[in-house]
Amino acid sequence: MRKSGIILPVFSLPSNHGIGTFGIEAYNFIDFLEKANQSYWQILPLGPTSYGDSPYQSFSTFAGNPYFIDLDLLTKDGLLKQEEINPIDFGKDKRYIDYGKIYLSRYKVLKIAFNRFNKNNKEYEEFKESNKFWIYDYALFMALKDYNGGKTWTSWNEDIRRREQEALIKYSTLLKDEIEFQMFMQFKFYEQWNILRSYAKEKGIEIIGDIPIYVAEDSSDVWSNPKLFMLDKDLIPTKVAGCPPDAFSETGQLWGNPIYNWKAHKEEQFNWWIERVKSSLGLFDIVRIDHFRGFAGYWSIPYEDETAANGRWEVGPGIELFDAIKKELGDINVIAEDLGYITEDVKRLLNYCGFPSMKVLQFAFDPKGDSEYLPHNYNKNTVVYTGTHDNDTIKGWIESLSESEKEFCMAYTGMKNEDDAWALVKTAIASTAETAIIQIQDILDIGSEGRINIPSTIGLNWRWRMDKNYLTDELANKLKSLSTLYRRNMKE
């Protein structure tokens, strides 16, 4: 069936507490999607973020971000009182998140809720048991980070860096209360999310989640599983991830994530990856795998290098990994992010897996050639986006085009003028792609001030917040009419 939906990060939802949460505005957004006759809500990774606040650099690939726990829902649970929340300064700007203020305020108020929480309840114990694969390591990791003043785990005392048994016992005892606090926050995160997801399912809305291919060096994933990554005898990465030089960057992109030791993963029958995908499928209906090409071949850069220029291509796990996942989990609903430099080995892997690929309209309008991103070149097993979190909004993007690109785009899409972002929304929804995903900013006609991320920059990303008055019935009806015209989300 032809379907469509909206991409909106959880952190961009409106709220009274500085950042989007799993509270009332998330439910209101699901109601909007239902009114607009949409099928999908796509979000970004939900993990706890580090310096720079990128959801693609998380302290854990399994844990959830405590910032998304809704404080008003905690008052309904009897764990907080409004007079404990109201005086707190979460940031005054309704347009952008102030992560500094969120960091200083959020954990203090969550600690109040934790101190009222009854730790001896059945649901909490069952949650810890069902997530034992990761939660104890994660909780200890976060407690140790706090104990060490936020320093990266590679700078901790040698005994706990290397997870010596005596050290694990020592710190598990010393930091018992902080460990319990970390597990409490995960319990509430998952509890609130699961209730919200059930509500979405009742409304006919499926959630598209996101798995970053790599994990952060400063994460519980690397600390607790060092043999699964390319580390030296001192537990320092030998190779890190990135992208090779191209037309957009002479030195490539240096991401800095440790490279997987795929030989070690294979020896363990890819168990860590199976658990990772299983966990994600427990949270989402469909999973977008970021940088899918890295499973066929990946750019490996020496750790000490300051750019990605001296990296080299290495062979990824390919078919073996996905066969192992399928053997354990059966067929899985995946969108493969296959943007960038795509070679024949990537195409073969994608065809073997049968996952839909991605196309981004903003990459299409080169008047000199017949781009694969132009809708007349799509096959049906495709997900088309007006843009992703790494792109500008349509309105901002149009302003950046050369005159020849702008003329081609306007002629192809039927744009009435340079402010007509809806022409590209219509082009995506009208395309032959089985699925169309629209940036929320593009149906709101928002310019570059609404951009989520500018790759390879730090400081002003992941901050945009949506005004609670933007989602009107008029807007829902406009989107519904367009989807109906092009036979998307038709009820059987």
From TrEMBL:
Q: Under which EC number(s) is this enzyme classified?
A: 2.4.1.25
Is Ribonucleoprotein among this UniProt entry's keywords?
no
Keyword match Membrane: no
Q: Which domain of life is it from?
A: Bacteria
Reaction catalysis annotation: Transfers a segment of a (1->4)-alpha-D-glucan to a new position in an acceptor, which may be glucose or a (1->4)-alpha-D-glucan
What biological process terms from GO does the record include? carbohydrate metabolic process
What are the alphabetically sorted keywords of the record? Carbohydrate metabolism, Glycosyltransferase, Transferase
Extract one GO molecular function annotation from the record. 4-alpha-glucanotransferase activity
The UniProt entry, under NCBIfam families, shows: malQ, PRK14508.1-3
Instruction: Say which family it is in.
Output: Belongs to the disproportionating enzyme family.
Q: Which PANTHER family match?
A: 4-ALPHA-GLUCANOTRANSFERASE DPE1, CHLOROPLASTIC/AMYLOPLASTIC (PTHR32438), 4-ALPHA-GLUCANOTRANSFERASE DPE1, CHLOROPLASTIC_AMYLOPLASTIC (PTHR32438:SF5)
Protein name (Swiss-Prot/TrEMBL) = 4-alpha-glucanotransferase
Supply the source organism for this entry: Clostridium sartagoforme
Q: What is the lineage of its organism?
A: Bacteria, Bacillati, Bacillota, Clostridia, Eubacteriales
